[in-house]
Design goal:
CATH class of the largest domain: Alpha Beta
Largest sheet: 6 strands, antiparallel
Helix content: 25-40%
CATH architecture of the largest domain: 2-Layer Sandwich
Number of strands: 21
Distance between the termini: 54 Å
Number of domains: 5
Shape: globular
Strand content: 15-25%
């Protein structure tokens, strides 16, 4: 077959195969047998092998990568993937409706109700109709590039039906049937079983070898559209956006409904509370969104979640089991935490063996005795907890539990600080504090070192290869010792060392959070990094300098000063620097606004669609220039930037007499280097 004929046949085969993929995986209406499908794939593979110059990234043959990745690259989300606020009962839903209507006024509000799929949130980026990148949610701002793994999901189109540029967001999941099949295969092979479909899906998508992901038969439902560009009429509502996504080839859940009244929403949700076990996949609630994009813009966001959406969580399942023992562990801050060890019981699709007890007062308050029958539920369908004791079932063999007076790891006497409930070990050389501190240091929100999990950190610490977090960056000098360890071949060791090396480039806020300074969370770490710029400036900061920063109070400032004064901390920082770990802030900085900046000290609202940039980009530029970007118009608003198809915010600004500028004027107000 000559090249011209081969090219025509390749195109025909690709279209036919993708059509059958859609019919089989998305529409559940297969037209050909598996053998016939395999024959089409073999013919396509043969032609692409014969004409390698005709091979393209959107070919169905390219869904599985050839070589495993050494580690996942980090991806910054153009628009943050925020979490949703939660509702647990009808009152919460009515309160949500009341808050929405207080902002949008007398306008009609329509709600879209969707099943909350229990899986892993991902973003899919398309340029001119081609799938170019897929990423995990991560911490909402930074995710991981898992493009090759997402390509293995056959319900994700590699090429859209129209050459549009967009971002689609969805929930990747594993069906109940696929989960059962996978666990059956693992049982036959003598491998440990997976706990539930959600964890199986998440673990499958984070495999460095996409062939493993492909073997797991994952699926996806798309629930969001953003950053749409191209020759298409932009949708005006979320439900219209889902219709567009479906027409482009995405799989959209068909159980969604649109309602004009919150009472109808509540009735719909209550119906699904009972029906959820009949679904072929797991759901843990419902998502309710304001349908109108214009109203979504008017409602805006809080720091953590959109005001126009909420997640209703189904009531947690409960089960009765026996409290067999209580285990005590020491965390990275020295807090001694009791954990209930239970007789295994099935709960919400998983086997529960442990439950959190938090502290001694919880044990006393619940009146727990070892051997008690207890009622266990999953808080938010995630964390098991004991909600009640059944004293009527006692036989007389139950015994009290007493918290230890000395640290179970180092033997030091335990103390209570500042009238805290928790007992603490305050020995800085306690092995538990050092080990747990290392586990925190490599965690996702801190230095985010792939391949270095809790178990491996514990082993390396136990064997003396790690005595402090700085030792991580000298492990390359002990490569032979790593290779001698069980289940650590050359590839896994090299991947681990590459991930450690990559973490050296992290911005300062990750390092500060990873160091585990008491009371300093991820948000405070970012504020400190942005304010001081480099770790040396923070190490010499005064109390006045610290408390002058928003949300850094006297208690946190005292903790930071105590930490920075310790000689061993100075030694640690010097070792990290010597190893090449970045100690400067490299994120977006709120620049010193010029005295003549038109945004200095101004509260600005953006409404409508901007052409030159996305709304988050514009809001970031306003913030960098000394302004404050908010989501709603009020008497305190100083300026409104009106893009295309501006809605009720524009009208409200006119009624209040607030200055209004168009996008071109806004762009002209930006510094030239912007």
């Amino acid at each position: 077959m000559d090249r011209t004929a081969a090219q025509a046949r390749i195109q025909q085969l690709r279209e036919e195969i993708e059509r059958h993929n859609r019919l089989y995986h998305t529409e559940d209406k297969p037209e050909i047998s598996d053998a016939e499908y395999d024959q089409l794939m073999r013919e396509l593979q043969a032609l692409e092998t014969e004409h390698p110059d005709l091979l393209t990234s959107d070919s169905p043959t390219q869904r599985v990568g050839a070589e495993p990745l050494p580690f996942f690259e980090k991806v910054e989300h153009k628009t943050p993937m925020l979490s949703l606020g939660n509702a647990f009962n009808d009152t919460d839903l009515r309160d949500f409706d009341r808050r929405v209507r207080q902002i949008v006024g007398n306008d009609t509000v329509r709600y879209v109700c969707e099943l909350k799929i229990d899986g892993l949130a991902v973003s899919l980026h398309y340029e001119n109709g081609m799938f170019v990148r897929g990423a995990t949610r991560g911490d909402g701002t930074i995710g991981e590039d898992i493009t090759q793994n997402l390509k293995t999901i056959k319900t994700i189109p590699l090429r859209l039906s129209q050459p549009l540029t967009l971002e689609a967001r969805g929930e990747a999941f594993m069906s109940k049937r696929s989960f059962e099949k996978l666990n059956k295969e693992r049982e036959e092979q003598g491998e440990p079983l997976f706990a539930n479909p959600r964890n199986s899906a998440a673990g499958s998508l984070r495999q460095l070898d996409s062939k493993i992901t492909a073997s797991r038969a994952l699926d996806i439902f798309i629930y969001g559209l953003s950053d749409l560009q191209g020759d298409v009429q932009p949708p005006q509502a979320h439900s219209e956006g889902l219709q567009l996504l479906e027409s482009l080839g995405f799989k959209v859940n068909q159980e969604l409904r649109v309602f004009d009244d919150i009472e109808d929403v509540i009735t719909f949700i209550n119906g699904w509370t009972e029906k959820r076990p009949t679904l072929p996949y797991e759901i843990d609630g419902m998502v309710i969104k304001v349908d109108s994009y214009g109203q979504q813009q008017e409602l805006g966001f809080t720091a953590k979640s959109p005001r126009w959406a909420i997640a209703y969580k189904f009531p947690a399942e409960e089960a009765v089991t026996i409290l067999e023992d209580i285990e005590v562990t020491v965390g990275r801050t020295g807090a001694v935490t009791p954990t209930a060890l239970l007789k295994p019981v099935s709960l919400a699709g998983t086997t529960v063996k442990r439950a959190s007890l938090h502290n001694e007062d919880i044990i006393r308050g619940k009146g727990l005795l070892l051997g008690d029958h207890v009622v266990v539920k999953k808080a938010g369908d995630i964390i098991p907890e004991i909600v009640a004791v059944l004293p009527e079932r006692r036989t007389g063999s139950e015994v009290p539990f007493n918290m230890p007076t000395h640290c179970p790891e180092c033997g030091s006497e335990l103390v209570r600080l500042d009238e805290e409930v928790a007992l603490r070990c305050i020995n800085p050389e306690c092995p538990a504090l050092i080990r747990e501190g290392m586990i925190h240091f490599v965690s996702r929100l801190a230095m985010n070192i792939d391949g270095l999990g809790e178990k491996l950190v514990g082993q390396l610490f136990h064997d003396g290869l790690l005595k402090s977090v700085a030792d991580l960056y000298y492990l390359h000098e002990r490569r032979d010792e790593l290779l001698s360890r069980e289940r650590m071949g050359e590839k896994s060791v090299d991947n681990l060392l590459a991930a450690i090396e990559a973490s050296k480039r992290n911005s300062l806020e990750r390092l500060l959070f990873g160091l585990g300074i008491r009371h300093v969370g991820a948000k405070a770490a970012r504020q400190l990094a942005e304010h001081f710029g480099q770790i040396d400036a923070l190490m010499t900061a005064t109390e006045d300098e610290l408390v002058a920063i928003d949300e850094i109070g006297p208690k946190m400032a005292a903790s930071i000063l105590t930490y920075c004064a310790m000689p061993q901390v100075h030694h640690l920082i010097e070792r990290l620097k010597a190893a090449g770990v970045n100690t400067e802030y490299t994120g977006v900085r709120a620049m010193e606004a010029a005295a003549d900046s038109p945004f200095q000290g101004k509260t600005v609202v953006i409404t409508g669609t901007l052409v030159a940039m996305s709304r988050p980009e514009a809001e970031e530029k306003i913030t960098l220039l000394g302004g404050k970007a908010t989501g709603s118009v009020s008497k305190k608003t100083d300026m409104v930037i009106a893009g295309e198809k501006a809605g009720s915010k524009l009208e409200k600004a006119r009624d209040l007499g607030i200055p209004i500028i168009d996008e071109q004027t806004f762009l002209a107000m930006l510094p030239k280097n912007e």
